[in-house]
From TrEMBL:
PROSITE patterns: ABC_TRANSPORTER_1 (PS00211), ABC_TRANSPORTER_2 (PS50893). This is Metal ABC transporter ATP-binding protein. Gene3D superfamilies: P-loop containing nucleotide triphosphate hydrolases. The keyword Nucleotidyltransferase does not apply. InterPro entries: AAA+_ATPase (IPR003593), ABC_transporter-like_ATP-bd (IPR003439), ABC_transporter-like_CS (IPR017871), Metal_Ion_Import_ABC (IPR050153), P-loop_NTPase (IPR027417). SMART domains: AAA. Pfam families: ABC_tran. The lineage of its organism: Bacteria, Bacillati, Actinomycetota, Actinomycetes, Kitasatosporales. GO terms for molecular function: ATP binding; ATP hydrolysis activity.
Amino acid sequence: MSLRGAAVRVGGRTLWSGVDLTVATGEFTAVLGPNGVGKSTLVKVLLGLLPAAAGEVRVLGGAPGAHNGAVGYLPQRRSFDACVRIRGVDVVRLGLDGDQWGIPVPGLGRAKRRAARERVAEVVELVGASGYAHRPIGQCSGGEQQRLLIAQALIRRPQILLLDEPLDSLDLPNQSAIAALLGRICHQEGVSVVMVAHDVNPILHHLDRVVYIAEGGALAGTPAEVITSETLTRLYRTPVEVLRTSGGRLVVVGQPEAPALHSDRHAGHGTGGGHAAGL
Ligand SMILES: Nc1ncnc2c1ncn2[C@@H]1O[C@H](COP(=O)(O)OP(=O)(O)OP(=O)(O)O)[C@@H](O)[C@H]1O
């Protein structure tokens, strides 16, 4: 994926401009930055849901959206209500043929149904969800639901996996487990992972590249290049300290927390109301 001199405008406002970025194949990239700078909007541009206002954006050698069959997408977290009866495996299967729901697929014979079942089982195994995938998804924990949604995004064997804050509202052990899972999907399965995140700590260990969006532009580099006290303090406009543990791992301290009602800030998109108060 590449952006050259790219800019984006929403609601008559330029969020960022002059952005030059490249995400190479097989890399684990985090998109970070303060609330409201346009991280989710970047994901929408990469999916072709929103046109760039200037510059050039290419995804898998084509215009954004042209190869979405090879892009898995996990939108910002929605949790399933406890009363949702659909099983985890059925949610995963929707990633394969959910877009054909209600329309009979001619010639979908027994062999194809078996292949689909096998692919569901394979991807459920990959994300470590076999133990609960046959339960109603509403009865799975937040971390379990997230694994099943990642399986859904992976079922078509995408080359790129785009995730919008997949660790949001998970507890710390689940954040680490999902981060490790995504690291494995990237580095062992060869899927390029691009993930919007608020807290870099759970993923820091797995990252190849960091993109910070702030001050109307973007800054990219390796974690060692970008994650420094000086750079983060400047970008977040608040004191942020980067410490190195005795094991050599970086820890970011003082990074602004995501507000508790995070998903509410997105409820008003497109309606002109609702989310500005949370920024
Ligand atoms: N459809 C829209 N119409 C008008 N404004 C929009 C629209 N979509 C997003 N915005 C605004 O664009 C800005 C960036 O939104 P975006 O969701 O990309 O930010 P973000 O960096 O992902 O924020 P957060 O960290 O809070 O998730 C916000 O100020 C938001 O209010």
